[in-house]
Amino acid sequence: MAKQNGASVFGRWLRRRGNGVFYWLFYGHLWIALAAAGLTWLSLHRSFGAEHASGYPVVCTVVFCATLGVYTLHRYLSFFRAKQLLTARRYGLVRRHPQICLLVGAGSLALALVLGADDYAAAWPWLLLALPMTVFYLTPPWPGWRRLRDLPYVKVIWVAGAWAIMTVALPGAVLATVAGREQTEAMLSGQFGLEFLVRFLFVLAVALLFDLRDVELDRAQGVRTVANAAPGVHRWLTYGALTASGVLGLLTGLPRVADLVLGLVYLAMLPVARLTYARVSEDWYAVVVNGLLLAPPVVYALCLQLGIAG
């Protein structure tokens, strides 16, 4: 009997720890920060190859910390400003641990600023674009004005634009400066523009899927999105963005096998997108839909590990 009680106590302890890990990984924005760092590495490797790989860890860490900080503070501010859905699972950590969430958010941003201090000269033009999009997405630029997320139909544009800047343009500009003039010219070539476009379209598709989760909240706040105003158009935009990402990936990947596989990864997400239209669970969005962002770098890294590079 004592052994059974001990096993029961251990089982409850394990479940609590498991639930804690699950919440912090998927609702504490570690999952999405990993995706941002992975997409940054993907862009750098496709642009510069293995020659300048020594500079990748710092840049990817900065993007990881910046993403973790921004998304954590975003959720923190949303919780204290929202009047609806405060019991939703996405607000669970802020509801139970507000001080810790504030510390994680502010601390991560501070660490990103410290680690990226040497690269401000190369990064500042892109930061001038990304920072206003990030700050004013949730905070009005002027009292009485709308937040960027409240503007009709364009909420997903800000998200896709910020991700394309932070995971393609900004890290590319930093590494191009480190690599020298030849790489700077390469970053301004058509290949770089296509990488930026593919990333924008890919994140746009994922952001459109997240609008399905937020239909109730957006309606309650008077925000018009394609998801709550034109569901049919929303479906075709999502499918179209993923298809365009895949086709462009395949075209730009010729004749490199790893890049061709990457294009197929985007197309393989279409069934997941279709399933998302029938899902209402927040866990589906936190784990699977956010996981779509991590799929391209993971598959690409696996190809390189297996020797499928050219």
Automatic annotation (TrEMBL):
<feature type="transmembrane region" description="Helical">
    <location>
        <begin position="56"/>
        <end position="77"/>
    </location>
</feature>
<keyword id="KW-1133">Transmembrane helix</keyword>
<feature type="transmembrane region" description="Helical">
    <location>
        <begin position="156"/>
        <end position="176"/>
    </location>
</feature>
<protein>
    <recommendedName>
        <fullName>Prenyltransferase</fullName>
    </recommendedName>
</protein>
<feature type="transmembrane region" description="Helical">
    <location>
        <begin position="98"/>
        <end position="117"/>
    </location>
</feature>
<keyword id="KW-0472">Membrane</keyword>
<feature type="transmembrane region" description="Helical">
    <location>
        <begin position="123"/>
        <end position="144"/>
    </location>
</feature>
<keyword id="KW-0812">Transmembrane</keyword>
<feature type="transmembrane region" description="Helical">
    <location>
        <begin position="236"/>
        <end position="254"/>
    </location>
</feature>
<feature type="transmembrane region" description="Helical">
    <location>
        <begin position="21"/>
        <end position="44"/>
    </location>
</feature>
<feature type="transmembrane region" description="Helical">
    <location>
        <begin position="260"/>
        <end position="277"/>
    </location>
</feature>
<feature type="transmembrane region" description="Helical">
    <location>
        <begin position="196"/>
        <end position="215"/>
    </location>
</feature>
<feature type="transmembrane region" description="Helical">
    <location>
        <begin position="284"/>
        <end position="308"/>
    </location>
</feature>
